[in-house]
Design goal:
alpha/beta; disordered N terminus; 23% strand; eight-stranded mixed sheet
Length: 261
């Protein structure tokens, strides 16, 4: 018995120590860990935002706002119009996020926070922003909130030109929404060939009646693309201004994405 008692006592001591209540400090520490993890999960689920940065192939630092909608969600990239920035899409982005879409809005080169290179040199605006779009899509495809097989692009004005130019050569882009598109903005952004390459993938093209060149573009796209949905409003403005005109464009975009993303 003395030998058995000698063997059992250390084991019993260890067992009893594990059954002792935690100290206040240990309990508080564990509660903090649980709170931090729960808060992070809740932020992802309820739709917080995240300021992001990534670098283009030519060294421009692009800034953006990510609106995550949980893990592996269908995703939308938003490209603003000339003389604007990513904030022009904030209201739409929150509505899409609430509907279950992860959204990334970016400042294209020369606008908002995208005004410097990685080595601090100033960046000028440039109507040709394909490196910005390419870097944004690469960023999205690596993010946990994004279903890399379900990405759409929304572009406004020159942003729409950059959207279709990129999407035409990336067969994985599922659909595009083009607000006030143009056939060749600034004589630098031709789009007809890109629309031909886009082919039978779904497109929503939107313009306002007084925006004559964009109305002409809608007509041209209708004769080129086989799955283009055209929407024309009256006196609703240009690009993202149409979103604030109270004509129901946000609901139209959401319905289009539900069917085509």
């Amino acid at each position: 018995m003395p030998v058995l008692r000698t063997l059992l006592l250390p084991i019993l001591a260890v067992f009893l120590s594990q059954c002792q209540p935690q100290s206040d400090a240990d309990a508080a520490s564990n509660m903090d860990d649980v709170f931090v993890k729960s808060a992070a999960a809740a932020a992802l689920n309820r739709g917080g935002t995240e300021n992001v940065r990534f670098t283009t192939s030519d060294g421009v630092v692009i800034t953006g706002t990510l609106f995550p909608a949980g893990a592996n969600a269908p995703t939308v990239l938003c490209l603003h119009q000339w003389r604007s920035d990513r904030a022009s899409f904030d209201e739409l982005a929150r509505k899409l996020q609430a509907a279950g879409y992860t959204v990334l809005t970016i400042d294209m080169r020369g606008y908002g926070g995208s005004t410097k290179t990685v080595d601090g040199k100033p960046v000028r605006t440039d109507r040709k922003a394909q490196p910005d779009v390419t870097a944004a899509i690469s960023f999205l495809r690596a993010h946990k909130s994004v279903d890399a097989n379900r990405i759409a692009i929304i572009g406004a004005s020159y942003g729409s030109s950059n959207a279709i130019q990129y999407a035409a050569r990336d067969a994985a882009i599922k659909s595009v929404v083009l607000l006030s598109p143009g056939l060749n903005y600034f004589n630098e952004l031709p789009t007809e060939d890109a629309v031909k390459i886009w082919g039978s993938r779904p497109m929503l093209a939107v313009a306002s009646s007084e925006d004559v060149r964009s109305v002409e573009t809608l007509q041209a796209y209708s004769s080129i693309a086989s799955r283009v949905q055209v929407q024309q409003y009256d006196n609703a403005g240009h690009g993202t201004d149409i979103l604030r005109a109270g004509v129901g464009l946000d609901a139209l975009i959401l319905d289009f994405l539900k069917k085509n993303l």
